[in-house]
Structure formats: structure tokens, C-alpha cells
């Protein structure tokens, strides 16, 4: 199975905050809310327990994101954790709980692990931080150069290549759902890509300037959820709001956003990949405290 991304250890000195969730204003659909390898130490400032509600599809008009104001918690109605065929690994850490475990994998054991050898090698144009996923006999991998490759699981032959170009590279692991790959770039562009051909299905509007994607998306109730990170952390340009976003799966539409800036800071950056527990509640962690100039 694909190797997991390295996650930082959250220090005990940083308190966690519980983020209750309630339905939004009647004029908006209810919002549904829920780490990656890095070359420097990251510190957690918040871990939020968020209630998820399924959002509607929306039309072709792209609304401006609306920060949510929530008071009552809730979960995805009738949420059932998805099950996958034993040979598949469709998203970061495989399941919605991000366990990184395949309970049906019986072929590799302590007795034979030492005999494993490469079956094929597939080179990528750019370096890779994201982990590959495996669905329907295809391996999908994204690289820092902005390439996504579909590789035949049996032969290692490349079926197609998608190039993001000026939209940036990929740190995030693609997420497969219903024939579509969902993934965002380091420059804040989020895509829906057809898994069969690599054709662009949707290019979603940017949530905010000076932001990118580093965690991996999750899909639940027909809605895509993703965290937003700083585009340029070296200059400490804080993201003041809209750090968690939900996208439609039926149109290039931002359904809603959530602001999770901790008290006493000017912003927060999400490097984590959201997860959903079996009861339908989502969890999301932010990075270290941001005290620099705000961006919007």
C-alpha cells in the first residue's frame, strides 16, 4: 500500500479548542466542515471538532465565500463510513478516519516482506511529497512540478498526464470519488479531474489570495472539503478567514467557508487533511500561530 505522509507531533503545550457548529443563515446552505511532510517543525494551535452537513449542488454562478457563524454542533445526516475493495487506496490514509490501514490486506506478511522487490518503476517529472492512490487498476500520483500521472497498476505504463502549469505544484494527495480526482495546488487552485482520461472537469475559483492547498481533500455527502494554507509562509502573510472550504461536486462552485482563526492571532493556516469519525463529525488541525499582516 502507498506510504503515508509524515505528520507532526502536536506539542502538549498548545491547547486545543472545540469548535461547535450550527446551521447557517437561511439564505445559505448549511455548511459542512471536518498533515503532511514538511521540512521544518510545525506547531498546532487548534484542533477543531466540526459538525458536517451535506450541502446542495449550487448553480453555475460562483458566490463569494461566507465565513460561518455557528453555535450548535451537528453531524452528516445518515453518514456511513465508505468501504473500499481490498485492492484500492482511494485517498490520503485510505479511509475517512485517515487510519492508513487496509484491514483486508493479507498478501504481505512478516514471513514474506523481505522478499518484496520492485515490479516496475515510474518516474515523475517533478519531485513527490504526495502519496499515490490506487483505484480500479490505476495508480494516480501528483508531483511538485504540477503533474498528475495515471499509471497502469499491472504494467507501470503511463495512461495520461495532467499538467497544472502556472497554477502551481501539488503537495496534496489526490482524492478519488465517483470517477473524479479532487486536488488543490500550492498556488490555491483547486481541480476536479476525470480519472479515466485526465480531462479537466472543473477549475474552482480561489477562496482567497495568498493561499494554497497542502492538506488532502475529503468527500462526504456529495461535497468536497479542504483546508487552506498560507501561500508564502516565509513572509508570514496570514490568512485572516475562510480557512476551511466546501466545494460542489456538480459545478465549479464554492458552497461555503469557515473561519477558524484562533483568538489572539491574526490568522491561521491549515496544513492538515480533514478526517471524519464514524459518527459523521469532522476534525481539522491548524498550523502554528500566525501574527503577521493579514491578507484577504
List the main descriptive attributes of the protein structure presented here:
disordered N terminus; four-stranded antiparallel sheet; mainly beta; 296 residues; 19 strands
Helix content: under 10%
Rg, Å, rounded: 19 Å
Low-confidence stretches: 1-49, 51-72
**Total beta strand runs:** 19
**Structural class label:** mainly beta
The span between the termini is 39 Å
Average pLDDT rating? 77
Q: How many H/I helical runs?
A: 0
Principal-axis shape: globular
Order of helices and strands: EEEEEEEEEEEEEEEEEEE
Main sheet: strands, sense, barrel: 4 strands, antiparallel
Percent of sequence in beta strands: 25-35%
Q: Please give the order of strands in the largest beta sheet.
A: 2-3-4-5
Question: In brief, what are we looking at here?
Answer:
This protein has strands at residues 47-51, 133-135, 138-142, 147-152, 158-163, 175-177, 180-184, 190-194, 200-204, 211-212, 218-220, 223-227, 229-230, 238-239, 244-248, 254-258, 275-276, 281-285, 294-295.
SSE topology sketch:
Layout: E1 47-51, E2 133-135, E3 138-142, E4 147-152, E5 158-163, E6 175-177, E7 180-184, E8 190-194, E9 200-204, E10 211-212, E11 218-220, E12 223-227, E13 229-230, E14 238-239, E15 244-248, E16 254-258, E17 275-276, E18 281-285, E19 294-295
Parallel strand pairs: 14-19
Antiparallel strand pairs: 1-18, 2-3, 3-4, 4-5, 6-7, 7-8, 8-9, 10-13, 11-12, 12-15, 15-16, 17-18
Explained architecture:
The protein has no helices and 19 strands. The N and C termini lie far apart (39 Å). The strands form six sheets. A four-stranded antiparallel sheet has the order 2-3-4-5, with no helix packed on it. Strands 6-7-8-9 form a four-stranded antiparallel sheet, with no helix packed on it. The chain is mainly beta and 296 residues long. A hairpin with a 2-residue loop joins strand 6 (175-177) and strand 7 (180-184).
Amino acid at each position: 500500500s502507498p506510504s503515508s505522509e509524515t505528520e507532526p507531533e502536536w506539542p502538549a503545550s498548545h491547547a486545543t479548542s472545540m469548535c461547535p457548529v450550527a446551521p447557517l443563515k437561511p439564505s445559505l446552505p448549511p455548511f459542512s466542515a471536518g498533515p503532511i511532510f514538511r521540512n521544518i517543525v510545525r506547531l498546532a494551535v487548534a484542533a477543531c471538532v466540526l459538525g458536517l452537513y451535506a450541502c446542495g449542488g449550487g448553480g453555475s454562478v460562483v458566490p463569494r465565500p461566507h465565513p460561518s457563524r455557528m453555535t450548535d454542533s451537528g453531524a452528516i445526516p445518515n453518514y456511513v463510513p465508505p468501504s473500499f475493495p481490498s485492492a484500492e487506496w482511494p485517498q490520503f490514509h485510505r479511509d475517512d478516519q485517515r487510519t492508513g490501514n487496509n484491514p483486508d490486506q493479507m498478501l504481505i506478511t512478516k514471513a514474506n516482506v523481505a522478499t518484496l522487490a520492485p515490479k516496475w518503476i515510474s518516474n515523475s517529472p517533478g519531485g513527490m511529497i504526495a502519496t499515490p492512490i490506487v483505484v480500479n487498476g490505476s495508480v494516480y500520483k501528483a508531483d511538485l512540478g504540477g503533474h498528475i500521472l495515471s499509471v497502469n497498476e499491472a504494467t507501470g505504463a503511463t495512461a495520461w498526464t495532467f499538467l497544472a502549469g502556472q497554477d502551481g505544484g501539488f503537495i496534496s494527495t489526490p482524492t478519488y470519488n465517483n470517477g473524479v480526482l479532487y486536488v488543490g495546488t500550492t498556488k490555491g487552485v483547486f481541480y476536479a479531474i476525470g480519472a479515466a482520461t485526465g480531462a479537466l472537469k472543473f477549475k474552482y475559483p480561489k477562496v482567497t489570495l495568498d493561499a494554497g492547498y497542502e492538506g488532502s481533500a475529503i468527500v462526504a455527502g456529495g461535497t468536497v472539503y479542504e483546508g487552506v494554507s498560507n501561500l508564502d509562509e516565509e513572509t508570514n502573510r496570514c490568512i485572516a478567514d475562510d480557512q476551511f472550504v466546501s466545494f460542489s461536486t456538480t459545478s465549479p462552485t464554492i458552497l461555503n467557508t469557515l473561519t477558524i482563526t484562533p483568538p489572539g492571532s491574526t490568522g491561521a493556516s491549515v496544513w492538515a487533511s480533514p478526517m471524519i469519525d464514524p459518527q459523521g463529525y469532522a476534525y481539522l488541525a491548524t498550523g502554528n500561530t500566525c501574527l503577521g499582516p493579514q491578507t484577504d
